[in-house]
From TrEMBL:
Name of protein: Transmembrane protein
Signal peptide limits: none
Keywords: Membrane, Transmembrane, Transmembrane helix
Region feature (Disordered): 648-672
The keyword Transmembrane appears for this protein: yes
Native source species: Penicillium olsonii
Coiled-coil zones: none
Transmembrane regions: 62-86, 130-150, 570-594
Length: 672
């Protein structure tokens, strides 16, 4: 006896609708389960302990299995609902119609054998049933797609904490090399000598590679913002008056070289492609690379002067020593001139070059860089140890001028007991800035000279020879050689490519490519800024945290972990299509229920009862009653009308239905 709800007349409707609703509930459960995992770290899942320990399963394996179980249940319930609809439709087409036995066989096996979906005759005879079968076979696709909507991706997690980060303490005495001497009345004087070795190391390293040195972060993946005051360069082209004065000074020196180095058989002309120097003063005379001593025609060079100006505009020395009654006063900023003369390569013949001396300084670039105290706003970011430093904003605060030291006495009196002036942090800060400027300038100062010689032999025939002197400057070992102003003299720093020997190695040598279009003024500012930031890479210049109360910085520490990522739209696209197709099928199933005036299934009892009234167009032998596969051809080709029809029944002698068709009330397409 059938149990509930199979014992009800409308059991098919109950099963179809109930399966759909329960399947929808499992869809919602699957969505809620994945949504709960979405964004959570993989290692933070906590499944049942006995599963994890006894089966050695990971959290991810268990969660994937649970998601697959949801998909399996949804597929099974929706498939059961559509298969129930298929039963109602199939029996509607079979019952009371004349059908081929083989066609009925294929139709009822459609849900078990997918190959029957390619039977064109079945699509012609039973289109509705075949469409339902296709839906039933495609429903598992949703169960394949839906578990895959939960994936694992690498994600970043930010943690904010207050920490000590690398800084620069410009009030440290580790930047400048100072020496002390005893003076009058037990007084003393502390004199600036030069930058320390560590200061020079940092500056030279940055100048060579052109980038900020590696700074040790508090964590491999971290970032923080830092505001601080530090030295900065402002570089710009000189005004026309100073530019004209400097170029005229260079021309006069070149002419003087031609006069002083000429003899009967040889003449010599010195030309300049690059010059860099620090000025003596702010005056025009003090700003030139060369100067004349009083009463002398000979020129002296300022090319190896690294700090200046140190005298006033009037040419009188300023008091650069800080004393009790003479506090620190910032005057004209420390400056450096950089000049390039591409026109020096214009003439290779001595006489022509001598006549066109002014053209050797045409199209020149003359830049003045001044030292200032600036405010920096920098963001330091480290991703897997890779350093990125972005300077958001810089603002000039005040100029930094030259001063030579401090003293405990005044000019007209002995030693003072007032030492409060020594507590001024700007004193040691200015000395630190000054040492950085000297280390930077010492690399750039000097010159690159071109010699043009003409020799006369006994027949009065002349021959001009031009060659470059070994550069007397450190700029050749810096990234500044890649600027557009230095391109014209780049070849002077390389190997001699005019020798025939190098032709044999053209296939193996790589030609240097310097295609930078950055102007040298901008490159100088950036290089000095990189040097300032690189000071944080040295522990020598770090603050003394045991003495100084340095505020901690808010550091963002980033960790990378695998998290679950749920693609909700894909899951509901798959489930939505499956539920929609099932709902349409159920609507058709309800219609078939009313057409059939009841529920049908493919149970044996249903087949047994329906075939009791079947009329078959062929005789069945006792051998055919065993039901073994394959189906005999004479039965497969036979026509059968199912259901009991009183007016069509023909009784045989033993009371069984006749084995052949006597009368047909309805015709089915399958009859053909």
């Amino acid at each position: 006896m059938a149990v509930f709800p199979f014992n009800l007349k409308f059991s098919a409707v109950i099963l179809m609708v109930a399966s759909l609703l329960v399947g929808l509930a499992f869809c919602l459960g699957h969505d809620a389960f994945y949504q709960n995992l979405n964004g959570k770290p993989v290692l933070d899942g906590h499944p049942r302990g006995f599963l994890n320990s006894s089966l050695n399963l990971s959290d991810q394996q268990i969660y994937v299995a649970q998601g697959t179980l949801f998909a399996f249940l949804v597929k099974s319930l929706l498939g059961f609902s559509v298969s129930t609809v298929f039963d109602q439709s199939a029996w509607r087409s079979i019952r009371g119609h004349r059908n081929g036995v083989g066609a009925i066989d294929d139709l009822l096996s459609t849900l078990k054998n997918a190959l029957t979906l390619f039977n064109i005759r079945l699509w012609k005879w039973y289109p509705m049933e075949m469409a339902l079968a296709v839906i039933c076979w495609l429903l598992p696709v949703a169960s394949i797609i839906s578990p895959a909507t939960l994936s694992v991706q690498l994600a970043s997690f930010d943690q904010h904490t207050l920490m000590k980060v690398p800084r620069v303490d410009f009030t440290s005495t580790n930047f400048a090399d100072l020496t002390s001497v005893h003076a009058q009345d037990s007084g003393w004087m502390s004199i600036y000598r030069s930058p320390t070795a560590e200061t020079q190391r940092i500056i030279k390293s940055v100048a060579a590679q052109g980038s900020i040195l590696p700074i040790d972060p508090p964590a491999v993946n971290s970032s923080w913002s830092l505001s601080f005051h530090g030295p900065g360069l402002l570089c710009d082209n000189v005004d026309k008056e100073i530019g004209a004065y400097i170029t005229e000074n260079v021309v006069q020196v070149m002419k003087e070289s031609a006069r002083s180095k000429s003899s009967r058989n040889m003449s010599d002309l010195t030309r300049y492609g690059y010059l860099s120097w620090a000025p003596d003063s702010e005056s025009l005379n003090g700003s030139t690379p060369f100067y004349q001593l009083n009463g002398s025609d000979a020129y002296k060079s300022r090319l190896f002067r690294v700090l200046g100006p140190e005298v006033s505009d009037k040419g009188e020395p300023d008091d650069t020593v800080v004393k009790p009654k003479h506090p620190l006063v910032q005057r004209a900023p420390l400056s450096l001139f950089v000049a390039t003369f591409p026109g020096v390569l214009g003439y290779s013949e001595y006489d022509t070059a001598l006549e066109n001396m002014d053209k050797a300084v045409q199209n020149s670039t003359i830049i003045r860089c001044s030292l200032h105290n600036s405010s920096y706003q920098a963001v330091l970011t480290y991703i897997n140890g890779r350093q990125t430093i972005d300077v958001k904003d810089t603002e000039v605060i005040n100029p930094v001028s030259l001063f030579s030291g401090t003293a405990s006495f005044n000019d007209s009196s002995g030693a003072s007991s007032n030492t409060s002036f020594m507590q001024n942090p700007q004193i040691i800060e200015s000395l630190s800035y000054q040492s950085l400027m000297e280390a930077f300038s010492s690399i750039l100062v000097g010159g690159i000279r071109n010699y043009l010689k003409v020799m006369t032999d006994g027949t009065n025939e002349t021959q001009s020879v031009a060659y470059w002197e070994k550069p007397q400057t450190g700029i050749i070992s810096t990234k500044l050689m890649e600027t557009k102003e230095m391109r014209s003299i780049q070849f002077t720093t390389g190997s001699n490519t005019d020798t025939p020997y190098t032709e044999y190695w053209n296939a193996r040598s790589v030609s240097p490519s310097h295609l930078s279009s950055v102007p040298i003024s901008e490159a100088l500012e950036d290089l000095f800024q990189n040097a300032t930031l690189s000071l944080m890479s040295s522990k020598t210049f770090q603050p003394n945290y045991t003495v100084n109360d340095i505020p901690e910085t808010n550091v963002t520490i980033t960790s990378y972990r695998n998290i679950y990522v749920y693609t909700r739209s894909i899951l509901w696209a798959a489930y939505g299509a499956a539920i929609g197709a099932t709902a349409l099928s159920i609507a058709a199933g309800v219609f078939f229920y009313f057409k059939n005036d009841g529920s049908y299934s493919t149970k044996f009892s249903t087949i047994f009862r329906v075939t009791q009234g079947a009329i078959v167009s062929t005789d069945l032998s006792p051998k055919d009653h065993c039901g073994l596969d394959p189906l005999p051809d004479h039965i497969a080709n036979a026509k059968m009308t199912t259901g009991f029809h009183q007016d069509d029944q023909v009784e045989s002698v033993d009371g069984s239905p006749a084995a052949h068709l006597r009368h047909v009330r309805h015709e089915s397409p399958a009859e053909g």
